[in-house]
Write a structure and sequence with these properties.
eight-stranded mixed beta sheet, 13 helices, 378 residues, single chain, four-stranded antiparallel beta sheet
Length: 378
């Protein structure tokens, strides 16, 4: 029987990726591109951002060289895994003119979607995937494309051993330690004397794959070291969000004057929703060729920050920047709970980093909680 905690030396990490490739997986992992760490297809561990870290503050993202060769020595970048599970552009169907009628050809993309292996999924991101699972796979309406893709995913998660400047996952109870719904979870240990990964088995698929990779059983002191690093990461969090009764608090403060203050800074650019790992707003577009013989219907990412998103006959029901920001934040932290039984925020901090004017969701909620105009003061 295989121990649940194993040691994989850094020199054997490539064997993990090779084993995934041999099983027909397309490996998606962090890569260094255009001065950011993003997710893309890789075939070798040498393509990962080895020896790099990131520095993040509101509206600021910078890469910086580390003083070691850590493979996962950074937190999260502008991309999230949702672009592979819930693609930005998806053809729903096409239609061809046939005499006086037309013939519809449905999109069968769900049957040709590649098998993805996600390598480097953080705890907050894994929780974001679970949230979207709940949105798209549970309830009365199931997204067949998402469900088909999700069933093929192999997840190699990574426990965070350093905190980012905008992280607040501890407030949302989504990290920094990976808890469940992974196939393999890694904790990287790197210093002047040693460099290895503690691998935790999360599924039968993960167990079988790890059995093919050179490894040894983890010793108690090694497991304790990994736990200490994760605990230190949790204590390093610079931001926090008080979620006590937050659902009712935001409902009660619909008319709080602080919404006007935020609106004066918000550009309605939708960066926060594009970077967010859980936002799922879309629109549908029909396109036709010049001959009028062929047409297609596409689903595309959209945002509640656009004027057109809430347009109905007669105009937009959220015409002001105030109403659109209020809709986003209230849905994310409040009405999402009523809809899906959980918050829509995982504390990854992307919305803070990639907001051009540095609007900080944790500070905005805090300011409202302590505002003299709050219906319920914190």
């Amino acid at each position: 029987m295989m121990n649940n905690k194993l040691i994989i030396e850094r020199k054997n990490f490539e064997a993990l990726l090779s084993a995934l490739c041999q099983r027909g997986f397309t490996i998606i992992a962090p890569v260094l591109r255009e001065n950011a760490i993003v997710y893309d297809e890789v075939t070798s561990s040498n393509e990962l951002p080895i020896g790099w870290t990131d520095e993040q503050t509101p509206a600021t993202y910078r890469l910086k060289k580390r003083n070691d060769n850590a493979v996962f020595g950074y937190v999260v970048g502008p991309h999230s895994w949702k672009k592979y599970l819930f693609p930005p552009h998806l053809k729903l169907f096409s239609a061809e003119k046939n005499g006086k009628g037309f013939v519809i050809e449905e999109n069968h993309q769900q049957f040709t979607i590649p098998k993805y292996a996600f390598v480097g999924v953080r705890a907050c991101e894994l929780n974001a995937i679970q949230i979207q699972d709940n949105v798209f796979c549970n309830g009365q309406y199931v997204d067949a494309n998402y469900k088909s893709q999700r069933e093929k995913i192999f997840i190699v998660a990574v426990n965070c051993v350093q905190s980012g400047g905008n992280c607040f996952c501890t407030s949302m109870k989504t990290g920094p330690k990976v808890e469940n719904n992974f196939d393999i979870a890694l904790t990287e240990i790197v210093n002047e004397k040693e460099h290895y990964f503690i691998a935790e088995v999360g599924s039968e698929k993960g167990k079988v794959l790890l059995s093919e990779i050179p490894h040894r059983e983890a010793e108690q002191k090694e497991m304790e070291k990994a736990n200490q690093l994760v605990e230190q990461t949790a204590n390093q969090m610079k931001r926090s969000l008080d979620t006590t009764n937050i659902k009712q608090f935001l409902y009660d403060n619909f008319d709080n004057p602080h919404w006007d203050e935020v609106a004066l800074r918000c550009l309605n650019c939708a960066n926060c929703t594009m970077a967010c790992p859980t936002c799922f707003c879309t629109t549908v577009e029909d396109v036709t060729d010049l001959t009028g013989e062929h047409t297609e219907r596409w689903r595309k990412w959209d945002s509640c920050f656009t004027m057109e998103f809430s347009y109905i006959h007669g105009g937009s029901i959220r015409a002001s920047a105030k109403s659109r920001y209020r809709q986003w934040l209230t849905h994310k932290l409040s009405s999402w709970i009523d809809q899906f039984g959980t918050s829509g925020c995982v504390g990854c901090g992307r919305c803070i980093t990639w907001c051009p004017v540095g609007i900080d969701i944790t500070e905005e909620v805090k300011a409202m909680q302590h505002s003299k105009f709050s219906t319920t003061k914190k």
